UniProtKB/TrEMBL annotation:
The keyword Zinc-finger does not apply. This is Short chain dehydrogenase. SUPFAM superfamilies: NAD(P)-binding Rossmann-fold domains. InterPro entries: KR_dom (IPR057326), NAD(P)-bd_dom_sf (IPR036291), SDR (IPR050259), SDR_fam (IPR002347). Residues 8-163 form the Ketoreductase domain. Keywords: Plasmid. The keyword Glycoprotein does not apply. Belongs to the short-chain dehydrogenases/reductases (SDR) family.
Amino acid sequence: MDLGLAGRVAVVTGGSSGIGLATARRFLDDGASVVICGRDRERLDSAVAKLGGGDNLHAEACDVLDPEAVQRLAENTVSRFGKVDILVNNAGQARLSTFASTLDTDWDAELKLKFFSVIHPTRTFLPLLQASDAGAVVVVNSLLARQPEPHMVCTSAARAGVQNLVKSLSVELAPKVRVNSILIGTVNSGQWERRYRERAAPGVTYQEWLAGLAREKHIPLERFGEPEETAAAIVFLASPAAGFITGAALEVAGGVSRFA
């Protein structure tokens, strides 16, 4: 299926590993030029090597919580590629805490990260997206936005707020810019590999350990998702092929949700 991405320019925040890296690779494979950013220069250099480099890829160290850094990223993107058609807001991480254990400083940090990692890039790149004939924003959110977990109370609340923001933006920025989100469940990543090394019983392979966790989590598809599967959903929603979709939340979670 031709997604219409040839000649497009996509910016992927948090693009140095995991879902962000897989998304950048998928955009490149479909003919787009890609800008990735992250805070760690070494990880970015490693990502560029994994993606094969090339004139259609630019990597830049950028903290999306710093509006001046995001502005420089936008300026450098225009200098390199001349335009921006797509923004993927992917920066962020989870915080394990209950209501009783979450300090005010934790709430401040988590709410700031989840909201402003979307707000700063969207605000900065918006004029460029509005100038495109296919402007699109995709926010990588979590199933926690609709199905909170008590051991992740702070992150769950923040994710719900971000989902509300996505819906508001989809109305305000229409018809020039489409805004959608994906709600991810449990995705195979470096954090799970680290936990495997710390927790798995001797003789249990990584895949066996993941399969056991999938059963414990009651995932109907009986496995974790892979970054490439999440990337496929992101790239589709960002593409002109999804041109009549805005304000949507696409669940990529193996069927684990309990809401209708």
